[in-house]
Design brief:
Layout: H1 5-9, H2 20-71, E1 75-80, E2 85-90, E3 96-101, E4 106-111, E5 119-122, E6 132-138, E7 143-148, E8 155-157
Antiparallel strand pairs: 1-2, 1-5, 2-3, 4-6, 6-7, 7-8
Length: about 160
């Protein structure tokens, strides 16, 4: 039996691996997709935060309204734009019983209540002393408006 030396020293170039150029092209495409998706993903996170805060504030306003009805006393929510918080108090003293601070990067942008204290009061029937809007804004410019309607005190947000 005679051995063929050419078989042992022959280099096989027909392997099914990837070339460095193919790997670089795939990585470039993945990085480009990442650059496109990342800002949209971050914007989605910010909109979830502002949506969460708006829902939380809306629920708290409705809770205070229900407390005013059930306890038959006047409740007040005072908004502090400078410190990004709101306080809940009730008559006769109107000392704060609860203070809630908004999440970082969420601002109390505009309060349209004409009361000088930036507050809304709910009487024993759950009616607000005046209608108004509370506008929340995040750092990316997204905003949501919480509205309190006159007479009925219906609370909605958009």
């Amino acid at each position: 039996m005679k051995l063929n030396k050419d078989k042992f020293y022959k280099i096989n170039y027909d392997n099914d691996g990837f070339t460095i150029l193919e790997l670089i092209m795939v990585l470039t495409i993945i990085i480009m997709i990442g650059f496109i998706i990342t800002p949209r993903f971050l914007n989605l996170l910010h909109s979830k935060n502002i949506n969460y805060e708006a829902r939380k504030l809306t629920a708290k306003i409705r809770e205070v309204q229900q407390l005013a009805i059930s306890e038959q006393i006047t409740y007040r929510i005072t908004f502090d734009i400078n410190n990004e918080l709101y306080e809940i108090s009730y008559s006769p003293s109107f000392l704060p019983i609860e203070t809630i601070k908004l999440q970082n990067k969420i601002d109390l942008n505009v309060i349209t209540f004409t009361d000088i204290t930036n507050s809304v009061q709910f009487d024993a029937f759950g009616a607000p002393n005046e209608p108004g809007d509370i506008i929340l804004q995040d750092t990316t410019g997204n905003y949501l408006t919480i509205s309190i309607t006159e007479n009925t005190g219906r609370v909605t947000f958009q």
